[in-house]
Design goal:
The chain is α+β, with helices and mostly antiparallel strands. The protein is built from 3 helices and 4 strands; from the N terminus they run βαββαβα. Helix 1 runs antiparallel to helix 2. It comes from Streptomyces griseoluteus.
Length: 97
C-alpha cells in the first residue's frame, strides 16, 4: 500500500518547517520507501507498518504543538510493490508518447 499524508501543526504560527521536518525524519528513519514533496510525504509498505509510521510522525509533531491536522490518502493494492516508482514511470511513459 501507498499512503500519502500531511501532518500540520496548528497554533504554532506560520513557520511550520521545523515541525514538518520532525515528522519526515520519523518516516525516513523507518526504512520504508518514501518520498516527500511540497505538499505530502508518501510511504510504501504493509498496512500495519505504514500506519505505525504515520502514527509516530503525528506523535512527534503533537508533542510540540497544541493541535495537529492530518490529511491521509491510501492506495491499497495487495501484491503491488515499488508503486512509488512504477506509478510515476507509467505517467512519464505516457507523457513521452
Amino acid at each position: 500500500m501507498i499512503v500519502a499524508f500531511s501532518v500540520t501543526p496548528l497554533g504554532v504560527g506560520e513557520d511550520v518547517g521545523e515541525y514538518v521536518a520532525d515528522a519526515v525524519r520519523v518516516v525516513r528513519e523507518s526504512g520504508l520507501p518514501n518520498r516527500t514533496d511540497a505538499m505530502f510525504t508518501s510511504i510504501e509498505g504493509e498496512w500495519d507498518e505504514v500506519m505505525d509510521v504515520v502514527r509516530r510522525a503525528v506523535a512527534v509533531v503533537e508533542a510540540r504543538a497544541p493541535r495537529v491536522s492530518l490529511v491521509l490518502k491510501a492506495d491499497i493494492r495487495p501484491g503491488v510493490t515499488d508503486g512509488l516508482t512504477s506509478k510515476v514511470e507509467t505517467v512519464e511513459r505516457h507523457l513521452g508518447s
